[in-house]
Design a protein that fits this description.
This protein is α+β, with helices and mostly antiparallel strands. It contains 21 helices and 20 strands. The strands form 5 sheets. It has a 7-stranded mixed sheet with strand order 1-5-6-10-9-8-7, with helices on both faces.
Length: 553
C-alpha cells in the first residue's frame, strides 16, 4: 500500500489498517539475505564523544558519578534562586497531564456499542464500568485501556479500539492540565536535592559529577542555542572549600582535552544561588584552536540556598557544557548542525556515492540469461557498424530447456546496425550523471587521454561537449554502457517470455533520454540530491537497437 492510502485507511479504521500493514511485510530480496547482508562500521556522534571524555576526566579526578533528579517542583526553584526564581521559571518547561474523566455508560452508549456489532449483557456492561472506574482511579494505565475494554466486552483489540474511538469521544477531547513540576533547567536544581539527601549520611568530602540533559524554553533555537543541552557538572562538598579548588579542578579537567593555559574572570551574570563574587568564567587556550575560548563556569553555593536544604557545610560547583566542548574541539559553527545533522546539515553526496546509486533496473536472474546478455553485447560489438539493412544472430540454442533464436537487426536502409550512442558509457562528475561517447574499439585499459583522442578522431567533434570531456578526464566511471543496459533488459524479458508462455517478443530502443531508456535506475536519494544541487542527468543519444526473440520448435 502507498503512504497516502495507508493514512486514509488508518483514519477510517486504525486497528484494522495497523494489522494489515503487518501482513504486507515484504520477504527479503535474495541479495539481502544473510550472509550476503553485511553491516558496515557505524559513525560516532561528536557530542557523545565529548560526553565520554568528560566522564572519563571526572572519574580520573576522583569524582563519583551520580544521576540527579530531572523533575523539579516549582517551590525548589524559589528555595534555590530566591528573587531570581520568576526569571528562571520563565525559561522552564512545566509538565502537564491529561485528566482522567468520569465515563458514564448510559443507554445511548450501550446502543452505539451494539450498533457496531457487539452484543452486550449485564455482565459485559458491569465489567466495562469497572474498567472505566479503575482507569479514573489510576489503577489502570492508558496503555492497557484498549486491551481492558476489549476483554470486558469479550471482543478482539481491533473492535475495542473502534469502540473507544466511536463511542467515547470524550477520551479524544481531553485537554492537558498543567502541574507545578518543571523539567530541570540547570543541573544546580538537581544538585541541591542530591546534596540534601547526602549531607548527613555521607562522610566529607563529597565529590560527585553528573552529565545529563537540562531543558530550557528558549525563545527560539538558533546556531548557538537549543532547548535541550547536556550539562557536565560536578560538586565538592566539604567543611571548607575555596575558589582555588574550582580553579584547580577546571585546570585538571580541561587539560584532559588538550588545553594548555587558563585564565579566570568574574562572571557578570551573578546567579543568586552562588555567593556574590564567586561566580567565575574559565577560559582556556588550546594550541589547535590558537585562541582563548570560554569553556566552563564555577562558583560557591550561597549559604542561603544551602540553608533551605539543611546543609551547613560549603559546596563548590563547576559546570561544562558538553555541546559547547564538542563545538569548540570539532570546529562547528552551528550547534543545530552538530547535534542534529540529519535534520539541519544537508547531506552532500560525492561522485563515488552517486555512482554506487546507479544500477541496472532489470537484470537476468538465471545463468542462461546472463550468458545471453553477454552474447548480445558480443554480437553488437562485432557487427555494430555494419551498414543496414542487416541482421545477425546473437544466440541460437537451448535456453531454460527451450530452444530460442535471438537476432539483432536493422531494417531501415542507409544507417547501421546500431546507433552512434550505443557504446556511450556513464560517468559521474561534479554531481552530474553524464553519458560519454566511446568508440566501439575502446579498451578498458586505455588511459582517459587515449580514449579522448579516439573519440575526437573517430566521431563528430560537435557531439562531444565539455562536460563529457571533463567527466571522462576526472569523473567516476560506472562501468555501464548503454547497450549493456539494453542487453540485460532483453535477457530478462526472454526469461519472462518463456515463463509466461509467449512465443515471440520484439524489443526496440530508439533515442535515450532518461536512465530508464537504457534500463538504468537511480536511487531516489540521488535524484533528489542532483535536483536540489541544480546538476544534470544527461544521457541523451541515439541507440536504435532492435532485438527479436523467437521460440523455436
Amino acid at each position: 500500500m502507498k503512504k497516502k492510502e495507508i493514512l486514509k485507511l488508518a483514519k477510517r479504521d486504525f486497528e484494522k489498517t495497523w494489522v494489515e500493514t503487518g501482513l504486507n511485510l515484504k520477504k527479503p530480496h535474495h541479495d539481502d539475505e544473510y550472509p550476503r547482508l553485511h553491516l558496515k562500521t557505524g559513525k560516532n556522534h561528536p557530542l557523545n564523544d565529548s560526553i565520554a571524555k568528560l566522564r572519563q576526566a571526572y572519574l580520573m579526578l576522583g569524582f563519583s558519578e551520580t544521576i540527579n533528579p530531572l523533575l523539579i517542583e516549582e517551590d525548589h526553584i524559589y528555595r534555590q534562586f530566591g528573587p531570581e526564581a520568576p526569571a528562571v521559571l520563565d525559561r522552564c518547561f512545566y509538565l502537564a497531564g491529561l485528566p482522567r474523566p468520569d465515563i458514564g455508560i448510559g443507554m445511548d452508549k450501550i446502543e452505539r456499542i451494539e450498533n457496531l456489532g457487539v452484543p452486550l449483557n449485564e455482565d459485559n456492561i458491569q465489567s466495562l464500568k469497572e474498567v472505566f472506574r479503575s482507569y479514573k482511579k489510576g489503577d489502570t494505565s492508558g496503555d492497557d485501556l484498549v486491551q481492558d475494554v476489549s476483554s470486558a466486552l469479550e471482543v478482539e483489540d481491533e473492535s475495542g479500539l473502534r469502540i473507544l474511538e466511536k463511542v467515547f469521544p470524550e477520551l479524544q477531547e481531553l485537554t492537558p492540565i498543567p502541574s507545578n513540576t518543571t523539567l530541570r533547567s540547570h543541573m544546580t536544581s538537581g544538585w541541591f536535592l542530591t546534596l540534601e539527601a547526602m549531607a548527613k549520611t555521607h562522610p566529607l568530602p563529597v565529590k560527585l559529577f553528573s552529565i545529563d540533559r537540562c531543558f530550557r524554553r528558549e525563545q527560539r533555537e538558533d546556531s548557538s542555542h537549543l532547548m535541550t543541552y547536556h550539562s557536565a557538572s560536578c560538586v565538592w562538598m566539604d567543611e571548607e572549600v575555596s575558589l582555588d579548588l574550582g580553579m584547580a579542578i577546571s585546570e585538571s579537567l580541561l587539560e584532559y582535552f588538550g588545553f594548555k593555559k587558563f585564565k579566570f574572570l568574574p562572571d557578570e551574570k551573578k546567579s543568586k544561588y552562588y555567593i556574590p563574587g564567586t561566580q567565575t568564567e574559565v577560559y582556556g587556550y588550546h594550541p589547535k584552536l590558537n585562541n582563548w575560548v570560554e569553556v566552563a563556569t564555577f562558583g560557591l553555593y550561597s549559604p542561603i540556598a544551602l540553608a533551605h536544604y539543611g546543609i551547613d557545610v560549603e559546596v563548590m560547583n563547576l559546570g561544562v557544557g558538553a555541546e559547547r566542548m564538542a563545538m569548540i574541539l570539532g570546529g562547528y559553527e552551528d550547534i543545530r548542525k552538530m547535534v542534529y545533522p540529519q535534520i539541519y546539515d544537508k547531506k552532500s553526496l560525492n561522485d563515488r556515492e552517486l555512482a554506487s546509486m546507479l544500477r541496472m533496473d532489470l537484470y537476468p536472474v538465471t545463468e542462461d540469461g546472463r550468458n545471453l546478455a553477454e552474447a548480445i553485447v558480443r554480437t553488437a560489438r562485432e557487427y555494430g557498424d555494419t551498414p543496414s539493412p542487416c541482421e545477425f544472430t546473437a544466440f541460437e540454442g537451448d535456453f531454460l530447456d527451450k530452444k530460442i533464436e535471438v537476432k539483432i537487426l536493422e531494417t531501415e536502409e542507409g544507417t547501421k546496425l546500431l546507433g552512434p550512442a550505443s557504446w556511450n558509457r556513464i560517468y559521474v562528475h561534479d554531481g552530474n550523471i553524464v553519458g560519454v561517447p566511446h568508440p566501439i574499439t575502446t579498451n578498458d585499459l586505455q588511459t582517459p587521454e587515449k580514449v579522448i583522442e579516439e573519440i575526437i578522431n573517430s566521431m563528430e567533434k560537435e557531439i562531444v561537449d565539455d562536460l563529457a570531456i571533463q567527466a571522462l578526464k576526472n569523473g567516476v566511471p560506472t562501468g555501464i554502457s548503454y547497450l549493456e543496459g539494453v542487453a540485460a533488459m532483453a535477457a530478462y524479458r526472454v526469461e519472462e517470455m518463456l515463463v509466461s508462455g509467449e512465443e515471440q517478443i520484439n524489443l526496440r530502443t530508439t533515442i535515450a533520454k532518461l536512465p530508464s531508456d537504457v534500463n538504468l535506475k537511480l536511487d531516489k536519494v540521488a535524484v533528489r540530491h542532483i535536483t536540489s544541487e541544480n546538476k544534470v542527468i544527461d544521457i541523451r543519444g541515439p541507440i536504435f537497437c532492435s532485438i527479436t526473440v523467437t521460440l523455436m520448435e
